[in-house]
């Protein structure tokens, strides 16, 4: 029995048939069945469940292409994609858009994950023209890449807004990457960034955003980054 109910699969299939326009590629790094547990590195808690969910999703549309890699056995490829923890999902089209999901996409985050598939497939975001214009001008003054990390949990109904906005900023601007991190699966990162509530967003380790905010306020936070 799969992790997705028949009702969920039916709804997703209908959504994908209606909304997916171009191919979406999911590059998934997981823990191999025979992998040795390395001292100091915990066993991947939800790799098996994430495997199942992604395989089920990929059967619902021929436009969703899934590639699965053993994290340790494909270390060079993982490094090329900047993957340093698992489970890790890359959402891309023919181009790496900088979209990452670390952890299992479940609960409220599953809907945000499905929305990201549609957005990547349609090759467009819902960001306002004014937002894109302001950020485009700002990025011309920035030499370094911008990393947006959004810490979430499956039970957080407000996290999806920040996930969606972070992914949209990354899709629109190659200079930006968006990493969604399931906080309870990576407690060492939650401790590092003092995540006491979610969503919490950290930009380049310099700007922190507590809670869910509007597109305009998110933009204002990005514009506070020191120019390099």
Automatic annotation (TrEMBL):
Q: Which domain of life is it from?
A: Bacteria
Q: Cross-referenced Pfam families, in alphabetical order?
A: Thioredoxin_3
| NCBIfam families, per database record | PDO_seleno_TRX (TIGR02187)
Q: What is this protein called?
A: NADH dehydrogenase
Q: Which species does this protein come from?
A: Psychracetigena formicireducens
Q: Which Gene3D superfamilies match?
A: Glutaredoxin
Q: Which gene encodes it?
A: ahpF
Q: Which PANTHER family match?
A: GLUTAREDOXIN-LIKE PROTEIN, GLUTAREDOXIN-RELATED
Annotated ranges, domain Thioredoxin-like fold: 148-223
């Amino acid at each position: 029995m799969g992790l997705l109910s028949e009702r969920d699969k039916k709804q997703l299939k209908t959504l994908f048939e209606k909304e997916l326009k171009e191919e979406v590629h999911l590059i998934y790094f997981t823990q191999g069945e025979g992998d040795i547990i390395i001292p100091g590195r915990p066993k991947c808690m939800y790799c098996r469940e994430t495997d199942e969910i992604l395989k089920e999703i990929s059967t619902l549309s021929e436009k969703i292409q899934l590639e699965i890699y053993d994290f340790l056995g494909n270390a060079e490829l993982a490094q090329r994609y900047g993957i340093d923890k698992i489970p890790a999902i890359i959402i891309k089209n023919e181009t790496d858009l900088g979209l990452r999901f670390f952890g299992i996409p479940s609960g409220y985050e599953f809907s945000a994950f499905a929305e990201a598939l549609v957005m990547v497939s349609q090759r467009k975001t819902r960001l306002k023209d004014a937002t894109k214009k302001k950020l485009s001008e700002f990025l011309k003054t920035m030499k370094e890449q911008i990393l947006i990390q959004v810490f979430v949990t499956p039970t957080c109904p407000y996290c999806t807004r920040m996930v969606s906005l972070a992914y949209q900023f990354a899709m629109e601007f190659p200079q930006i990457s968006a990493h969604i991190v399931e906080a309870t699966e990576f407690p060492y990162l939650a401790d590092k960034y003092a995540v006491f509530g979610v969503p919490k967003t950290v930009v380049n380790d310099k700007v922190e955003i507590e809670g869910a905010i509007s597109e305009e306020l998110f933009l204002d936070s990005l514009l506070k980054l020191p120019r390099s």
